[in-house]
Write a structure and sequence with these properties.
The chain is of the alpha/beta class. It has a six-stranded mixed beta sheet with strand order 8-9-10-11-13-12, with helices on both faces. A hairpin with a 2-residue loop joins β9 and β10. It starts with a helix and ends in a 6-residue tail after the last helix.
Length: 435
């Protein structure tokens, strides 16, 4: 192995030289820590944790490694020296055998930076080394677009997004009324600043969000994706942020950003691949009276949206309360579903009837309406139209009032707060499985 490569490896893996293993592992786990779930690595696959930058992917794996208390070789794939080394699985494993004990886990950070990421990881899995393999990636597209072969059947994918209200709520204690008060305070914070770990732990969340957004635009867009019109990309981002929950008009965005419609579509694809926003498609259940094509745009994190448009005025004083609450409910839904198996859509008929979200989970339908006021006992005409047409298993009505429940036909209608959506959905569909 080249001396420069060894220097990099020893710098990133101090346990190879002198630092005690438990101390080295422990210093990568921040305190206080909001616990998150990740199943242990199976013998025959790589665990691939995918999500936006700074969502806690590395911390999740470091915590698992610290609990296992066994050696781990950390490999930062964005380091050019490491990336140049990670080309041949066979040669790499031969070097590792001379460097780390057989029980050492291999941890690949931001592996989408590798030229042949999927092919390289596939080669490691197929050689059945007996080593646990973990990898993080902030762009699922680049993991497979850069390889001639996919990781199908060889990777256990785990999506990790910014903190959900359920994860935050699990850390709160106290009598029921005290805990409920704390939850609503946390909800107000989540609506404005979002759930990125570093933002939540900062005394200056606005500055952290500004840094986060700028690093994405400059680093990921300009460098990794080689977007030439960064000014146009910023404009599309701002337009998406100003129109959350609205039908996307790509032609209008193209005109305002002074680029072609295909370019706007490509920008949106990049934003989806890097977990900044999601385009929500309409639910089509075979009814001819439904709109069938135009998506809506929602952000994966409220804080990022507010950094781009709207600012950090308290929720109670905002003119965009409805859109902001709807966006947060969307984030809570996607954080508790498997993106490979489940879907979140919206429903709108040509007659104007509309339901905010429709969750499809293994053949089951769960509808969701979002109201900023107290909606107990009041269902609009649109909700009744959807219930009559599709008979969903449940209808969630997110509102500001207290929790209540009733039945309409075979549908369970539940009125609840936005901070309760994740817990309720988890109880209905179970934990989002790794896929």
């Amino acid at each position: 192995m080249e001396p420069h490569l060894l220097r990099v490896l020893f710098a990133d893996n101090a346990w190879l030289d002198a630092e005690p293993l438990d101390r080295w592992l422990g210093r990568h786990v921040p305190t206080p820590l909001i616990p998150r779930r990740l199943h242990p690595q199976p013998d025959d696959r790589v665990v691939l944790v995918i999500g936006p930058r700074q969502s806690g992917k590395s911390t999740l794996i470091w915590k698992l490694l610290a609990e296992a208390d066994r050696p781990a070789l950390y490999l930062n794939c964005e380091d050019p020296t490491i990336a140049a080394w990670l080309r041949s699985p066979a040669l790499f494993l031969a070097d590792v055998a001379a460097l780390a004990p057989p029980e050492a886990t291999l941890f690949f950070e931001e592996c989408q930076a590798l030229e042949e990421a999927g092919l390289f990881l596939k080669g490691l899995v197929d050689r059945r080394t007996g080593r646990a393999l973990y990898a993080t990636g902030s762009s699922s597209f680049h993991l497979e677009a850069k390889t001639r072969e996919s990781l199908a059947g060889r990777a256990l994918r785990h999506q990790l997004l910014p903190f959900s209200m359920a994860e935050i709520g699990a850390t709160l204690s106290g009598p029921p009324l005290v805990r409920e008060h704390k939850l609503r305070q946390e909800l107000d914070r989540q609506l404005i600043f979002g759930g990125y770990p570093r933002v939540r732990g900062s005394g200056s969340p606005q500055q952290e969000l500004a840094t986060l957004v700028e690093s994405f635009v400059v680093r990921d867009v300009s460098d990794r994706f080689q977007v030439r019109r960064v000014d146009a990309f910023r404009k599309v981002l701002a337009l998406a942020a100003s129109q959350i929950g609205n039908l996307v008009n790509f032609s209008e965005w193209a005109t305002l950003a002074e680029v072609g419609g295909d370019t706007v579509a490509e920008y949106c694809r990049l934003l989806e691949e890097t977990h900044v926003l999601r385009l929500v498609r309409p639910f089509v259940g075979g009814k001819r009276a439904e709109i069938t094509s135009t998506p809506k745009a929602f952000f994966v994190d409220n804080g990022v949206r507010n950094q781009l448009f709207g600012g950090f005025v308290p929720f109670a004083d905002r003119a965009d309360r409805g859109a902001l609450l709807e966006n947060l409910v969307f984030t809570e839904l996607i954080k508790h579903l498997n993106p490979l198996l489940d879907s979140v859509r919206y429903w709108r008929s040509r007659s104007g009837a509309e339901v905010d979200f429709v969750v499809e989970h293994q053949g089951r339908l769960i509808a969701c309406e979002v109201k900023t006021g107290d909606a107990r006992g009041h269902l609009g005409r649109s909700a009744h139209s959807f219930l009559d047409a599709y008979h969903p298993e449940a209808l969630l009505v997110v509102h500001s009032g207290s929790k209540a429940e009733q039945a309409i036909g075979d549908t369970r209608v539940v009125f609840l707060g936005a901070h309760e959506v994740g817990v309720f959905l988890g109880e209905m569909v179970g934990e989002a499985p790794d896929g």
